[in-house]
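Async update (no meeting this week)

Hi team, since we skipped the sync, here's where things stand on the single-chain job. The sequence we agreed to prioritize is pasted below, unchanged from the tracker. I ran it this morning and attached the output directly underneath so nobody has to dig for it. Comments welcome in thread, and please keep replies under the output.
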Amino acid sequence: MAKKNTIGIVREILADFLPRNGYELWNAEFAKEGKDYNLKVYIDAKDGVGADDCEKVSRYLSEKLDEADPIDMPYYLIVSSPGMDRPLLTQEHFERYRGSHVDVALYKGVNGKKAYSGILCERTEDDLIIRAVVDDADDSQGEEIKFPLALVSKVRLQVIF
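Output:
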């Protein structure tokens, strides 16, 4: 296992570097996948993130992690964008994307369904509220659906072309 809280250390290392270079930390994960450990860092920027951005952050973070040596096992460092269908994880993410189309996955079905799509209305302390999209109507016409956060597995932005 990691010597210290790996994600906390990553956040600390990147705290000044990312904003100084026009990036933000979307999420970081350290987990075993198959036989390998992966440290995944997702970055975002106002104008999007490309391969050069990921390489820049990866080089910086790799150097700083080598200096600090907080991980006592072999691992792969992966830096990428959260993608167009990015997961919404923090309250800030939910506020930023209020009014956007989202897909909601549930741990347990509600009204016989474990997957819903709609317009993100709000995430409160206890609930997630979306508005169902009605065919041939504007986005404000659908019924509001409220899910207890304890039932919500994932919320992702929809990719709409």
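Quick observations from my side:
Residues 6-80 form a domain with the GMP Synthetase; Chain A, domain 3 fold (CATH 3.30.300.70).
Residues 137 and 143 are 12 Å apart (CA to CA).
Reply here if anything looks off.
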